[in-house]
Specification:
Layout lengths: L1 H24 L4 H27 L7 H6 L6 H17 L3 H24 L7 H16 L16 H16 L5
């Protein structure tokens, strides 16, 4: 702190030395020389004050507005879940066993959530209403008493069947939530 004060005092001392030299060398311009001297000292004092204020109240690298504009980074967890869902869908198009064992439980959770939140219908306790809202194709996949496939390597879901199921769930998700 003391070294900084000494460094800051050097500039005004230098300006005063220059002032004295100029007053001696140019006695007829003393009024102009004094005005320039005071202007230079005022500018120096202002610069020192600005530096002190900036040190006392540092400017953040980015404002809260800038932070609000940034996109939230995707978490590794959500990417892993998306990759897992993608694998489940691919496997569900391969074999009936994968449809039943891997894809069906996730599909049931999604359907149960959407039915409860959008229509106030419980998938297990109101199967008739759930069947009506989901349609035959989706209901066949999520119904509670759906048996395990007898032939494990039978064909899985066709692309058109998968599109119909996803479309049904999307329509249900797009409907107004139940209050």
């Amino acid at each position: 702190m003391r070294a900084r004060a000494i460094r800051l005092a050097q500039f005004p001392l230098f300006c005063t030395f220059v002032l004295i030299v100029l007053l001696i060398a140019l006695p007829g311009r003393s009024e102009l020389i004094l005005r320039v001297y005071w202007l230079v000292l005022a500018a120096f004092a202002l610069a020192v004050l600005v530096g002190l204020v900036r040190r006392a109240h540092p400017v953040p690298k980015s404002s809260t507005f800038d932070l609000g504009l940034r996109r939230a980074p995707r978490s590794q967890r959500s990417l892993a879940e998306l990759e897992q869902l993608e694998r489940e869908v691919i496997l569900a198009t391969s074999t009936a066993f994968d449809v039943h064992l891997r894809f069906r439980p996730r599909l049931r959770r999604i359907a149960a959530y959407l039915l409860a939140s959008r229509r106030g219908v419980d998938l297990d306790s109101s199967p008739e209403r759930a069947r009506e809202l989901l349609g035959e194709q989706t209901w066949e996949l999520v119904r509670p008493e759906r048996p395990s496939p007898t032939e494990r390597h039978a064909r899985g879901l066709r692309r058109s069947e998968l599109q119909e199921v996803v479309g049904t769930l999307e329509r249900l998700a797009a409907s107004e939530p139940r209050s």
